[in-house]
Structures are given as structure tokens and as C-alpha cells.
Write a structure and sequence with these properties.
The complex is a heterodimer of chains A (about 675) and B (about 250). With about 675 residues, chain A is mostly helical. Chain A contains 24 helices and four strands. The longest helix of chain A is centred in the middle third of the chain and has 31 residues. With about 250 residues, chain B is an alpha/beta fold. Chain B is built from eight helices and twelve strands. In chain B, strands 6-9-10-3-11-12 form a six-stranded mixed β-sheet, with helices on both faces. A four-stranded antiparallel β-sheet of chain B has the order 2-1-4-5, with helices on one face. In chain B, α4 crosses α5 and α5 runs parallel beside α6. Classes of the chains: A mainly alpha (about 675), B alpha/beta (about 250).
């Protein structure tokens, strides 16, 4: 392989030495779709409604979403183990009803919660064991078995609460002995007055996260130099110092000019630090100059168009936020437009079908059967949700998001196409991209009416352009590695891992203390996610869970106690249901007999959105947690954006489909590259 | 080689299922470093035969000796404890799990970390790669899912796994049945490599073309009965075919 085509690992030569870069390896992990989805959905609603994403509302919806998140963790584990539990939802209600009834009625003064809560856990354990036992013994699908349990528990909840309490609502548990303790542990809220440390931890953690990610990726992608270049290293240190100085100054100054100056210093410092660090440590590439390919030019044009749309979308509408959009359009016309939009993909597909030859027709039919319903549903959903956009701000947010992301993608494609022929053009495109986004950032800043939206988009666009510039310079001037290098790979992996851990801690602190109140429910959510992910990936039991779901006979043949693993998973799910039930009871001080009824599907949806395979054997706990977050964000974001609340089901359905499709597509692509 | 005492010996073993005589008076021996091929058409009793050796069935009659001592296994686990490992046709692998996770499935290496038992992923990755290299198998990426490997490579993972976990007798159930020519050759190469590491290998197949080049000893079954046991020197391809098809009885 010559130096010329060193930019992207090519497929020539022995297939065995094809080296998978860090990004590609990242793409195979199951939670990637959910991660992207969570960020996009969050950003979307955050830019959309002023009420979304404030400290108070974040804390509130996280608190409300915690039960879903906790259950998604264990439901994901069960799903990876190849089974479902439809009784998981009503189990939360059953646990609440059991505790509340025992605490109020069983003796004169009621029973201490120290007995009631373990009793509820015992009951849940038995239900879980029974589910597992039946599935193992009869070989029936868990769908059927747990559906049976679901109805039995649902009925029991209603019967017992009506008979004993004469109402479907059991309340006032707070007089029971031990309420104070359990309330504090399960549903407690502790005030933290000082928010300074929270912000410092978030900021420093975020910066460390970004730095470690970049260093780790470079370590995995580039070729190490024979000897470190000290001059370049010193220059990199100067850059780091400038970046730190910029951030510190930003924290202290309040004037617009001061902020701008500090921001510019900080950003230039970052770019300088990254570029010179790469120079100091990694082998540089010989200069290659050539012409720009046509594909690259096309993408450049499209990217610039996207930038123009994004820049002017702010000015297309006047600033009155309260104005309701699309009122002039009668209802029937909206339906016509929506249906027409849904039918459009159909028409296009049929036309391409009519034109093609026989062989092509076969392929088209195959893809039609798979894709058509999905395409129609997604485009219908898109159109319908467009009609739910009732404020100028929302339309602007949509336009900017779509145009911006589209432009970024086009620039990236242009960069890739240019990278194969010309270093000079590669750098030029990177610079152009950066300038374009700085331009968008400043236009938006000048012309949006929502201050938070304006500030946030501005900052993220500036940061993104700095990073784009830095990575372009690094990629253009350095040789990328095409062979595996164990030591460097490991170092890079560790850096990325450390970065992820630090970033996760920083984000957790930020979320846990978002409005200065430490909520136990959110803590438990994070705790169980961490424990679940640890068990799944870092212990032998995780290996067993994967194996039991992936190929049960194989697991058994190699000595894995398959039945025990399944039973344990069913029990874990039911026990977690009891935990969540107790948590909700402690928080609300009352329980509805129908609580959790129907929630089991939300748990499953969260797990599937998080990249877990419905057939078992593949998945991720972190993904499931992120899936729950996506659902919570959309539940909270839709009312905050002043859309029709019932539209959230449409949104959820579309999110589910899109997430699964993206997951499958990404996994397939990443595996093809092996 | 033939001077070595056999690892495993069957004398006049038979198996009845109710009034069905699945296997009658079959004898063979397995010597370390040699490949014993069990040949026969469909329904010849090959499956019953390996199930007896791997401890899944108890023989109804005859003697089963391991290293000269008579044994009676209650479960496959006991057989495995003595080092009798079976690689079944479905290979006992989960296709979506990575090579190293499959390699150590059921016998995961753990590292104590205070009260917690961690999966020793570093050791597992390294060992899986090394062990497979010892059999001459070069996996591109130890983290890739087994489902993305070719059929021959998958067989090789299963063989390497059995060898690593202390197998002394390795039973391979139709390892080449679903493979193309090149892949079959590869797998047969691994079979020889395993035998060269002083394992006794039992290769079950219905394909004489695959059996002849690798086998040292041949046991031919037909309709539940032993047609005969032959050393390699006594056998030609044509004779093997004749014997398998049941047209000619052993002289």
C-alpha cells in the first residue's frame, strides 16, 4: 500500500491486515443508535421549547422517568437472555398494593414497613421464580407464560384492594412504622444549596472527556513517530494553556467583548493544542496535491446550500413566538397534504418499478415489501408532527436542525471524497466547513428570539467547528494507520474508556443535582444501570446471559446452567418491579391498583430502542437506559414545545421504528467492514 | 504408534431402546495421537455410538474402558471431567457472541477483585488467540461475532476450545458435512493438528473422501452393526465404499 492512499484504510492487499479504525469499532456497539438518538432528541426539544431543559424540568422528568429506566435495565437483561416478562408492569402495582395493604390493615395499627417491604420482595421473588420455572419446564414462550401472570396479578391487585380497602386507591401509608427511612432511601430528595461545585465538576469533566476521546482516537488511528518532537510538544502545551486561560476568563468576565475574546482565545488554543500534539507524537504524511473529485464538489455545494438555509431560516419568520402557525390551512387540507406526503414514496417506488427490467423488478419488490410500510409510516408521522408544530420557534428549530445536520453530513462527505486525492483540498474543505459554521453561529445569534436557544446553538456550533478544523488538520497532515498495533490500540482504548467514565460521572453529577436537589430515584436509575452493565460485560454471568439468549442448547452443552440463568433473570425482573413499586409508593404515599398496567410494553420499547435484539443474545444495558431516556425526553418535550400531547404516541412509534432501523443498518455496515 | 496403550476402548458394546436394537456388538479403540474414523450411512448407528462415548447414553451391554479401567458414566459431565470432549454439529456456539466469549463459554476465566469476581477479558482474548494459532488458525479479530466466521473457521474455534480445555479424546460429529471443498480441507487439517498434539480423535463422517486421508483406524457401521475395524494400511478407497454401502461383508 502506498503512502498516497493512506487517508482511509483501503481494501487492497491481504484482507487480514485491514485495520478497523476506532470509529468503526465504536459503531458496532449496540448502544450507539440509542446514544445518537438520545442526543438528537434532547437537542431537538431543547431547541424547541423554552420550558424544556431548564434545571427544574430536567430534574422533574428524570424523577418521573426513573421507574421506566430502572425497569428497562432488567427487562433488557431478560431480553438478552431471550425472554420477555409481560408481568413486569403490573408487578410494580402488585408490590405497591401489597405493601400499602399490609401496612394499613393487617393488624390494628398496621405492620411495620420493615416487614411489609421484604414481604413484597418475597412475593415478587416467588412470581419471578414461577415465571422462570414454567418457561423452563413447559418450554412455552415466555410471552404466553408471563401474559398469564400478568392477568392473574392484575386481577389480584383489583380484587384485594377493593375488598380490603373498598377502593382501587390505597393511600396514606405514611403513618406506618419505618416510613421515614424508606422514604429517604427510595424516594428521598436532599437539598444541596451550593451549585458551584456541580458546575465545576460538569465543566472540568466535560473538557477531560473531550480531550481523552480525541487523544484516544488519535492514538488508535495514527502511526506513532519514531521520536517525539519536543518543539511541537511545547507548542501544544502553549495551546493547552491558552485554552485553559480562555475557559477561566469566560467564567469570570461578563462583558460581551470580553466573552468573545476569551472564547476565541480558548478555541484557537484548543485547535493549536490538538494539531501540535499530533505533530509531536505521530508520523506525518507526505504532501499530495491533486484535483478535486466531482463527488466532492457536489457535496460541497449541497453543504453550502444547507448552511444558507440554516442561516436564513431564522430570518424567514418574524420574531413573535406566540403566533400560531398554519392556522390559515383548513383541517381537511392538512389531511390531504399528510396523505399525499405519505403516498409520495409509494408513487416513487411504483414508478421506478414500472421502468425497470425484470431482474431489477425482483429486487425492487423485495425491498418494497420490507421498506414500504416503514417509509409510509415515517413520512406520515413526519408530516403529522409538522402540523403539531404550532410556534415559529419550533419550525425554526426543525429547519435549523435539518439543514445544519444535512450540511455537516455533506461537508463530511466532501472531505472524505477529497481525502483520497488531495491533501490541500482536504484542508481547504475543512477550513471552509469551519468558516461556514461560524457564519451560521453568528447569524443565529443575531436573529433568534429565544435567548437560551440562541446561546446554546451558538456555543455548540462554535465548538463543533473548532473540532472539525482541528481533526481536519490532523487527518490531512498525518498518515493513518492501516495495521493493528496492540500496544497503541490498548492505550487508545483505555484513554477513550477513561474519558467515557469521567464524562459519565460529570454528566451524572449534573443530572443528579440539576436543580440542586439530590433525588434518590435518579440515583437508583444510574446505580442499576451501572450494576447491570457491569454484570453483563464484565462478569461470567453476563457471558451466560448472552449465551442463554443466543443459543440455549449451546450454553447448556458447554456447562452453563441455562435454566438457572433464565429463572434468575425472571426473578431479577420481578424483584426490580417490587423495588420500583415500593419506590413509587414511598414517593406518592399512595398506590393505584392499576399502576404499571401497560407499562411492560414501554419497558420493552426502551430496551429495543436501546439496541437490544428482540430474539435475544445481543444488546446493552446502557442502551436500554438511554432508550428510556429518549422516551422520557419525548414525553416531556412534546408538552414543553406546546404540541398536541397525544402526538407523543405518534412520536414514540416513529422513534421506535427509526431507532431499530438505524441500529440494524449501522450494525450491518460495521460488520461488513470486518 | 500402535504400541501405545489405547486411551479408550469399547468391547462388544450394544444399545437397545426398548425393542429397537440401535447398536450391536461394536468394538473399537482410540489411541492418543491417532484419528479413529467412524463411518456409516444414515441410520447406521453413528449418533448412538458417539452418545455412548460422550456419556449421554449408557450402553445396554459390553464394556467401556477408559485408560484400561471400566467406566460407566452417569452424565456427559463425568465424561468431560475425564477429558472426553464432543464437538457437535451445531458446535455449541452463540453466533452473536464474539470469538473469545464463545471460546470460554461455560468456563470463564475470572480474576478476583476484592469480593467481586471479574471476567478476565484480557487473558481470555489473549489465550483464545494463542490457542487457535497453535492449531494453525489465524483469526482476524478475536472480538468479531462467531456468526461472521466461515463454517470452517467456526469448526476450528470449537476444536481449539475443546483442545484448550484439556480434552484427551476429541469426538467430532460430522465436522465437514455442511462445508465446501476448501473449508473441509481446512477442518481436516485442524483435525490432524489436534491429533499431532497427542489427542485421541474420533471423527464421525459419512464421507469416505474426508475420512481416508486423515484416519489411522476405521470403524464401519451398517444398520447398527459393526462391519469391521481396519487399519489404514488394509484399506483402499474402493474397498471403503464397498464396505460402507453394505454390499460386501468383511472378509
Amino acid at each position: 500500500m502506498s503512502e498516497v492512499d493512506g487517508l482511509t484504510p483501503t481494501k487492497t492487499g491481504d484482507e487480514r491486515i485491514t485495520y478497523r479504525g476506532p470509529i468503526k469499532r465504536l459503531l458496532v456497539s449496540p448502544e450507539i443508535g440509542a446514544l445518537i438518538g438520545a442526543v438528537v432528541v434532547w437537542a431537538f426539544f431543547w431547541g424547541n421549547g423554552d420550558k424544556f431543559g431548564t434545571a427544574g424540568s430536567t430534574a422533574n422528568f428524570l424523577d418521573v422517568a426513573a421507574p421506566l429506566g430502572i425497569m428497562a435495565v432488567t427487562v433488557a437483561l431478560l431480553m438478552i437472555g431471550g425472554e420477555f416478562d409481560l408481568s413486569a408492569g403490573v408487578m410494580t402495582g402488585a408490590s405497591g398494593v401489597t405493601i400499602a395493604l399490609m401496612a394499613k390493615y393487617f393488624t390494628d395499627g398496621g405492620i411495620s414497613l420493615w416487614i411489609c417491604i421484604p414481604a413484597a420482595f418475597l412475593l415478587a421473588g416467588c412470581v419471578g421464580w414461577w415465571n422462570g420455572f414454567l418457561v423452563n419446564r413447559t418450554g412455552l414462550p415466555s410471552f404466553i407464560v408471563t401474559l398469564g401472570s400478568f392477568f392473574v396479578i392484575k386481577g389480584a391487585n383489583l380484587v384485594f384492594s377493593k375488598r380490603i380497602n373498598s377502593l382501587v386507591n390505597v393511600s396514606d401509608v405514611d403513618k406506618a412504622h419505618g416510613y421515614g427511612f424508606f422514604k429517604a432511601v427510595l424516594g428521598g430528595e436532599n437539598k444541596f444549596g451550593d451549585m458551584k461545585y456541580r458546575d465545576v465538576i460538569f465543566l472540568v469533566g466535560g473538557l477531560l472527556f473531550a480531550a481523552l476521546m480525541i487523544l484516544g482516537f488519535m492514538e488508535q488511528a495514527l502511526v506513532r513517530r519514531a521520536q517525539r518532537s519536543n518543539t511541537h510538544f511545547l507548542l501544544a502545551l502553549v495551546g493547552v494553556a491558552a485554552a485553559i486561560f480562555g475557559v477561566l476568563t469566560l467564567h469570570r468576565t461578563d462583558s460581551v467583548n470580553g466573552n468573545t475574546l476569551a472564547g476565541v482565545v480558548g478555541l484557537i488554543g484548543t485547535v493549536v493544542a490538538i494539531v501540535f500534539y499530533a505533530r509531536a507524537r505521530f508520523d506525518s504524511r507526505e504532501k499530495v496535491v491533486g484535483s478535486l473529485p466531482v463527488a466532492s464538489k457536489k457535496f460541497l455545494g449541497l453543504g453550502l446550500l444547507g448552511v444558507l438555509v440554516a442561516s436564513f431560516s431564522g430570518q424567514l419568520f418574524d420574531r413573535n413566538e406566540e403566533r400560531v402557525m398554519l392556522q390559515w390551512m383548513p383541517l381537511w387540507m392538512r389531511f390531504v397534504v399528510a396523505i399525499a406526503a405519505g403516498a409520495l414514496p409509494l408513487v416513487i417506488t411504483i414508478r421506478s418499478f414500472m421502468r425497470g427490467d425484470v431482474e431489477r423488478r425482483g429486487r425492487v419488490i423485495a425491498s418494497l415489501i420490507v421498506r414500504l410500510p416503514i417509509i409510509c409510516l415515517v413520512s406520515l408521522t413526519g408530516i403529522v408532527s409538522l402540523f403539531q408544530l404550532t410556534t415559529v420557534q419550533a419550525v425554526r428549530a426543525v429547519l435549523i436542525t435539518v439543514a445544519g445536520v444535512g450540511a455537516a453530513t455533506c461537508f463530511y462527505q466532501a472531505r472524505r471524497a477529497a481525502g483520497k486525492s488531495s491533501t490541500k483540498w482536504f484542508i481547504n474543505i475543512g477550513v471552509l466547513m469551519t468558516v461556514a459554521f461560524v457564519f451560521v453561529a453568528f447569524t443565529l445569534r443575531a436573529d433568534s428570539s429565544a435567548p437560551r436557544f440562541r446561546g446554546g446553538i451558538f456555543t455548540s456550533l462554535l465548538l463543533a467547528s473548532a473540532l472539525a478544523l482541528a481533526t481536519t488538520l490532523v487527518e490531512a497532515s498525518h498518515r493513518s494507520r492501516t495495521k493493528a498495533d496492540e500496544a497503541a490500540d490498548q492505550l487508545g482504548r483505555r484513554m477513550v474508556l477513561l474519558g467515557v467514565v469521567i464524562g459519565a460521572i460529570a454528566l451524572s453529577v449534573r443530572l443528579l443535582l440539576s436543580d440542586g436537589v439530590f433525588r434518590m430515584s435518579v440515583f437508583w436509575w444510574m446505580f442499576f444501570t451501572a450494576v447491570g452493565a457491569f454484570v453483563l460485560t464484565k462478569t461470567k454471568y453476563g457471558n451466560w446471559i448472552f449465551a442463554v439468549g443466543g443459543n440455549k442448547d449451546a450454553a447448556r452443552a458447554t456447562g452453563v446452567p441455562a435454566d438457572k440463568v433464565k429463572t434468575a433473570l425472571f426473578m431479577a425482573t420481578s424483584l426490580m418491579g417490587a423495588f420500583v413499586g415500593a419506590m413509587i409508593l414511598m414517593r406518592l404515599n399512595s398506590v393505584q391498583a392499576q399502576q404499571g398496567d401497560g407499562q411492560e410494553f414501554e419497558y420493552i420499547i426502551a430496551a429495543v430502542v436501546g439496541g437490544n435484539l428482540m430474539t435475544g443474545g445481543y444488546g446493552s444495558v446502557v442502551g436500554a437506559s438511554l432508550g428510556a431516556l429518549i422516551m422520557a425526553v419525548s414525553k416531556n418535550g412534546i408538552p414543553a414545545a406546546q404540541w398536541n400531547q397525544d402526538g407523543r404516541f405518534i412520536f414514540l412509534g416513529a422513534v421506535l421504528l427509526v431507532a431499530v432501523l438505524v441500529n440494524n443498518y449501522v450494525r450491518k455496515k460495521a460488520n461488513e467492514q470486518r | 504408534m500402535s504400541e501405545k496403550s489405547p486411551l479408550l476402548e469399547l468391547e462388544n458394546v450394544s444399545k437397545d431402546f426398548g425393542n429397537v436394537r440401535a447398536l450391536q456388538n461394536v468394538s473399537t479403540k482410540v489411541v492418543a495421537g491417532q484419528v479413529t474414523c467412524v463411518l456409516g450411512d444414515n441410520g447406521a448407528g453413528k449418533s448412538t455410538f458417539i452418545k455412548i462415548i460422550s456419556g449421554l447414553h449408557k450402553p445396554s451391554g459390553g464394556k467401556y474402558k477408559f485408560e484400561g479401567h471400566e467406566v460407566a458414566f452417569e452424565s456427559p459431565r463425568e465424561a468431560r471431567a475425564l477429558g472426553i470432549a464432543t464437538v457437535y454439529q451445531d458446535l455449541a456456539m452463540a453466533p452473536l457472541m464474539s470469538v473469545w466469549r464463545n471460546f470460554f463459554l461455560g468456563s470463564e476465566p475470572v480474576r478476583r477483585f476484592g469480593p467481586i469476581n471479574l471476567l478476565d477479558t484480557k487473558f481470555a482474548r489473549k489465550t483464545a488467540k494463542e490457542e487457535m494459532a497453535k492449531l494453525g488458525i489465524d483469526v482476524r479479530d478475536i472480538d468479531q461475532p462467531v456468526g461472521t466466521l466461515s463454517g470452517g473457521e467456526r469448526q476450528s474455534v470449537a476444536i481449539a476450545r475443546a483442545v484448550y480445555f484439556g480434552a484427551r479424546v476429541l469426538i467430532l460429529d460430522e465436522p465437514t458435512s455442511a462445508l465446501g471443498v476448501r473449508q473441509s480441507d481446512l477442518v481436516l487439517g485442524y483435525v490432524r493438528a489436534a491429533a499431532a498434539r497427542d489427542l485421541g480423535v474420533i471423527l464421525i463422517t459419512h464421507n469416505p473422501q474426508h475420512a481416508l486421508p486423515v484416519g489411522d483406524r476405521f470403524l464401519i457401521l451398517n444398520r447398527g452393526q459393526s462391519v469391521g475395524q481396519f487399519e489404514k494400511a488394509d484399506l483402499s478407497y474402493e474397498r471403503l465404499i464397498e464396505l460402507m454401502s453394505g454390499r460386501v461383508h468383511a472378509a
